[in-house]
Sequence to fold (235 residues):
Amino acid sequence: MTGERKVIQESMRRVLLKDYLVRESARAGFGGLDIQRTPMGTRVTLICERPGILIGRRGELIKQLTQDIQSRFQLDNPQIEVQEERQPSLNAQLMAEKLAATLERGWHFRRAGHSTVRRIMESGARGCQVILSGKLTGERHRTERFKAGTIKYCGEAVHLWIAKGFYQARLKPGVIGVNVWIMKPTAKLPDEIRVKGVEERVKVIPSVLPPLPEGEAAVVPELPDIAGGPVGGPN
Fold:
């Protein structure tokens, strides 16, 4: 088998494994997946909002899930690690799933989109974008965007600071695709430059002049110009 075929088969296996784990951990709130090959086998890290649902009593459910993925995808000694998402409002995948569930419950797409963006921005994100595409109001396909803050579409900032999530809302008219982009609160953009060791200090000097009596206007002294005469006076 050539190297190209191995790469393609490995990529297909990862995609199928992700789809399977998304379905199996839907009740626990799937927040992300990381697959790493180690000398001891394959380590799969699952990020969930409620890990206890996925682990089960005494770890029975997670053991069964490990056996299932080993038999289905022929992984070498898979080891599943479940991590809890501490900030679900800043997890793009979780917010995409929540928005899709909101649409399936009957919310209007504009109300649901604006509510999701507001919740993400209130959690401290630097930027957020929600894209809904499908049969939103009629028979024709359309796309709606909801955006707040700063979002980058290309360059290194996208790979470092943008988290992306995708999910599908299954409604009677059809399937609606839900895309959520979140710029992390710790993002440092290329145009933001800080000089180390230099601090800007602003001193506020309180006024020492006594207050003026009522009805009396302040007298502003005339400033001399370059020639020595008062500004605006006769030459």
Notes: The chain has six helices and seven strands. Helices lie at 3-24, 51-55, 60-73, 92-104, 109-122, 156-161. The chain has two domains: 3-84, 88-183. The mean pLDDT is 83.
